[in-house]
Design a protein that fits this description.
Number of domains: 4
Largest sheet: 6 strands, mixed
Structural class: alpha+beta
Oligomer: single chain
Order of helices and strands: HEEEEHEEEEHEHEEHEEEEEEEEEEEEE
Strand content: 35-45%
Number of helices: 5
Strand order of the largest sheet: 4-3-2-8-7-6
Helix content: 10-25%
Shape: elongated
Radius of gyration: 35 Å
Distance between the termini: 98 Å
């Protein structure tokens, strides 16, 4: 050994030297790719099964859970390069799972391969959402009602389904839960854990089904100098759908589009379109609903009148053609006040 040259500080071996001026043998004995704890805890909600990570509850797939535990609890060497990690989970019982790790990486141009086993210990807890649900906590009540006519149970269920569609589109939030719901006299009530969810649902109902919303806020307490409030949102659905025939101001119209303040109406008698507010439409009456319309092939037709077989008695009947009728096209008929009326087509009408 050259007394003036470099040597391993541990065993005195000659170069090449690596980390800490040690030879390869001494370096491998002292350098580890990762520090892996023997046991790591994690918490699952005993009621709904979501997982807690650092105070935040979320839905996590089992495979993602094990990788998340490794990322949060395993300390890798600061100089590791080209890291490759293999993971296999072995369930021991309902609370314990062994996580087998195979780690490969390069440190100071030396390739290391290590195997470790870490035990994941599950403990039961209760998330904030389940805690509040168990205590019947709520911040808002949405009341589904109707105007002009009583809605059927199926129509109320259609409105209720829009909440599920909205929840599927919105980001996860522990406060987005339903405390209670059910039919009441004259409508359907849904009690929610979040005022924000109630307002978002109200906007969604207006855009999809039209109608009016009335909101009231009541103070139920005070915390840290701030008033605690609850929201009551009353949604009134119009007694008609887009495409129905209504009688308004003595004329027959068809609503074609909802607006923030009312609806756009298409006149049946001639080509005319107008906007009306909900206040204007309070006296509108539904005379025929869209699902009651009938499509019929004309037998004879000229520029203004068409003949067809009445499906009620199979007798020949005549009807005046609408202003936008295309020769040869099926007739869109509605039975109004005992007479057949041929309706002009809207974009929502099929064949």
């Amino acid at each position: 050994m050259d007394l003036g040259g470099e040597f391993c500080l541990v065993c005195g071996a000659e170069p090449p030297l690596f980390s800490g001026r040690m030879c390869e043998k001494c370096t491998r004995e002292r350098v580890t790719l990762a520090k892996v704890p023997k046991n790591v805890p994690w918490t699952r909600c005993a009621r709904c099964g979501i997982i807690e990570f650092q105070g935040k509850w979320s839905h996590v797939d089992p495979e993602d859970l094990w990788h998340e535990l490794v990322q949060r609890n395993v300390e890798f060497h600061s100089e590791i390069e080209d890291l490759e990690l293999g993971l296999m989970a072995q369930e021991v019982d309902g609370r314990h799972t062994l996580i087998h790790l195979e780690i490969e990486g390069v440190i100071d141009d030396l390739l290391y391969t290590e195997k470790h086993t870490m035990r994941a210990r599950m403990s039961n807890g209760v998330c904030l959402t389940c805690t509040r649900r168990a205590g019947n906590y709520f911040e808002a009540t949405v009341q589904l009602r109707s105007s002009a006519r009583r809605l059927s149970e199926e129509e109320f269920q259609t409105l209720r389904t829009t909440l599920d569609d909205l929840l599927a589109e919105m980001p996860d939030d522990p406060m987005f839960f339903i405390t209670n719901e059910g039919p009441v006299t004259g409508g359907y009530d849904v009690v929610l854990g979040s005022k924000a969810l109630a307002r978002a649902w109200g906007r969604h109902l207006i855009s999809q089904h039209g109608g009016q919303i009335t909101t009231t806020t009541s103070v139920v307490g005070r915390k840290d100098g701030v008033d605690l409030t609850r929201l009551t949102l009353l949604y009134r659905k119009p007694g008609y759908e887009l495409g129905d025939v209504i009688r308004w101001r003595g004329e027959l119209w068809r609503p074609s589009t909802w607006t923030g303040e009312g609806a756009i109406l298409e006149k049946i008698e001639r080509r005319e379109r107008t906007g009306a507010t909900w206040r204007d439409l309070e006296n509108a009456n539904v005379v025929s609903r869209k699902h009651e319309f009938t499509y019929i092939e004309p037998i004879n037709e000229d520029a203004s009148v068409a003949e067809f077989l009445d499906p009620n008695d199979w007798k020949m009947n005549a009807v005046r053609l609408p202003f936008e009728h295309v020769p040869g096209r099926k007739l869109l008929l509605a039975r109004i006040d005992g007479e057949w009326i041929c309706l002009p087509r809207l974009g929502m009408d099929g064949e």
